[in-house]
Amino acid sequence: MNKPKEPSNHRTIERVLSGMRPTGRLHLGNYHGALQNWVKLQNDYECLFFVADWHCLTTDYADPKDIRGNAENMLIDWLACGLDPKKCTFFVQSWLKVHAELHLLLSMMTPLSWLERVPSYKEIRQQLTDRDLSTYGFLGYPMLMTADIIAYNANRVPVGEDQVAHIELSREVVRRFNFLYKKEVFVEPKPLLTQTPKVPGLDGRKMSKSYNNCIYIYDTKEEVRKKIMPAITDPARKRREDPGHPEVCIIHDYHKLYSSAEVCAWCEDGCRTAKIGCVDCKKKLLEGMDAFWDPIREKRAEIAKHPEQVWEIAKSGSEVAKILAETTMEKVREVMHLKY
Ligand code: SF4
After folding, report:
1. What is the CATH architecture of 15-199+307-335?
2. 176 phi/psi in degrees, rounded to 5
3. Are 151 and 325 in contact (CB under 8 A)?
């Protein structure tokens, strides 16, 4: 296994930071929504990617038993999908206690109303009605996120439009901190807006573990086939000879991710004119999906034989991250008169 690269406190390129919560196995929505972009970013930025295990507890505090196993699978998926520890740094959030220290210190100076107005606070509480999220930790999760980012003075955070409000909060917190303690300790992070393709779940809703509609990175070829063949298509195609509307069909969305332009055109024309049936269309999609995922599955199987090496990479990366975060924390403790 490769060793991670050394840290750099004398940067000439921008630093990117992003994390994933190990709440379950990674699915195609996670891959196309984030991981695929991370693999590109590692070539152009100094990248830090972390296992956001404390963040799991903000919503899953009552059932934390799977965190370690999920984290291990997630790290294996990252490596199999092309994240390279020679180009980027992996670390585990809970191994770096400075995240908790900075979270606490920022909590002292952040007005409660700033957290209450973050749009996702109300939205997620309305969605996750099966648990009690009237907790201090859940309200404060954007503050923990801010600590994660600014502990490394990351310049850029890859996000979708819906998460820009979190970065805006981080920027406000940075401005307040630098103003209160009269020193430019932190840089204001900026969003790195990412266009992500549409990856619906097998039932047409957002792909999500809680909807049980996912195709996982971990799935075998046969498991993928068993999920795709009975998947819903355009309800207008009740019979083979009924013309369809590819734009309302998830199989067409998947073709756009995995099939050539010629195959996409074949699917669109064949569907609208009823020249092809849904079974033909799905079989063609599976050819494209297999061509894309087979090499990743093989790589994944190899990496999974040596989980101890995967943890070794996370350990080395966490040492690198610790040096960077400690450098920032020394300045924080100094300006807050806590160095004694
Ligand atoms: S032919 Fe393809 S795109 Fe059209 S409804 Fe069937 S599966 Fe969907």
Report:
1. 3-Layer(aba) Sandwich (3.40)
2. -65, -45
3. yes
Distance 263 CA to ligand 1 centre (A): 12
pLDDT tens figures, 39-56: 999 999 999 999 999 999
The topology (CATH level 3) of 209-299 is Tyrosyl-Transfer RNA Synthetase (1.10.240)
Measured in Å, residue 221 CA sits from the centre of ligand 1 at: 21
329 CB near ligand 1 (under 6 Å): no
278 in contact with ligand 1, CB cutoff 6 A: yes
237 Cβ below 6 A of ligand 1: yes
The per-residue pLDDT for range 167-198, each reduced to its tens digit, is 999 999 999 999 999 999 999 999 998 888 88
Residue range 287-312, pLDDT digits in tens: 999 999 999 999 999 999 999 999 99
Report the distance separating Cα 143 and Cα 107, nearest Å.
7
**Overall pTM > 0.90:** yes
State whether the beta carbon of 276 lies less than 6 angstroms from ligand 1: yes
